Amino acid sequence: MQVYIVGGAVRDELLNRPYTDKDFVVVGATPEQMIEAGFIQVGADFPVFLHPKTKEEYALARTERKSGKGYKGFEVYASPEVTIEEDLLRRDLTINAMAIEVKSLMDDTILTGEVIDPYGGREDIKTKTLRHVSEAFSEDPLRVLRIARFYGRFYDPKAEHNFEVAADTLKLIEHINQADELQHLTAERVWQETSRALMQDTPHAYFDCLLTVGALPHIFPSIANALGDDKIKALVFQALQLAGQLNLSLQQRWAIIMLSLAQEVIDVLNPRHHSNHHPHQIDEALFSAWASKLKQVSHNLKVPKKTTQFAASYANCSGYLAAYPYLGQHSDSDANSLAKLIVLTKADKDPSELHELIQLHKVIEMAWQQLEMTDFIKAYTQISMADIDPDLQGSAIGTALSAARINAIAQIL
What we know:
- The structure is a single chain.
- By secondary structure, the protein is α+β, with helices and mostly antiparallel strands.
- It has helices at residues 8-14, 31-36, 84-89, 121-126, 142-154, 167-178, 187-198, 204-212, 216-219, 221-226, 230-245, 250-258, 284-300, 305-323, 332-345, 352-382, 395-412, and strands at residues 2-6, 23-27, 40-42, 48-50, 57-60, 62-66, 74-78, 99-104, 107-116, 129-130, 164-165.
- It contains 17 helices and 11 strands.
- Helix 5 packs parallel to helix 7 (187-198), helix 13 runs antiparallel to helix 14 and helix 14 (305-323) packs across helix 16.
- The mean pLDDT is 90.
């Protein structure tokens, strides 16, 4: 009997990333031997056992064969004859298909530290490549979501070079897109992968990867269609980056994704739009339509009720939140709008949701402002000496250059 640490723990160790969960594979054992050792079997479909003390998962080495549609369409074969290399072959990515042997079932001390890497995972870590282990990758549509999640997990906006999906893996994903495999993903599994990706440091990268590999229209058609608008995509992705930096909750992050469905009211959420507006001037029907649309999308994805309700609450309240800084001190209409905001969020009973909504709205306003400032900087830097009168001399050159740059910014305002 041989026992190995496998998968994520090995990968993260090589990446010098922290990890807490460890998964193990046992070679040369039977279910009876595992039970006799005190392990608790979980599930009837897979030979997986819980350690009697640590409760960590120990799986018997196994192989899988495609037998039907979707991620459940597999036959599992577990036997003492299955090798660690055969077990690793069934995994999704090379960086997840490595193992390190430990002493025994009851002692996870590493033996020699040698990394068993039959499919080139270490090299792909060096080159930052997300590559499939075998052609069987295309048999499990859930792996498209997983590869996007790993892309997002390792994405660093400051890095010169991030992980990329290998060209041959992209071809397999294209095959999955063209087949009907993605339609056999259950809403629960889609949400499980998506919610995990949303809670990563750079949640926008998950959706960006799904767009890049062409899978988003097959999984989230409404969101993919909305993100086809470059302005909406830029705003949503910028807000998601801020959400990761500021450690916003899952429901706040999902509300940002649902912002993509607000095409008709997106400009109303721009803080500059409200400099001369009051909340009673906002068309409530538009915000209500947005709330209905996001409820339908969330329902189709089996998004938890609390998360859906929060997003809908933001849709219904966002007009008032956008105008809130511009309220007059003695206006009856302002008082009426503030009272409505309190009623909508039930803030008179518990202000916590209102506080979360205010925080979320500030993040969206910050996203607007950062995008606009990026445009201002671009306009400023595009003006050069070639854009002013070549006959100018001395201080007149600096004055003209400054005036031209100011004018370029003014054209955007």
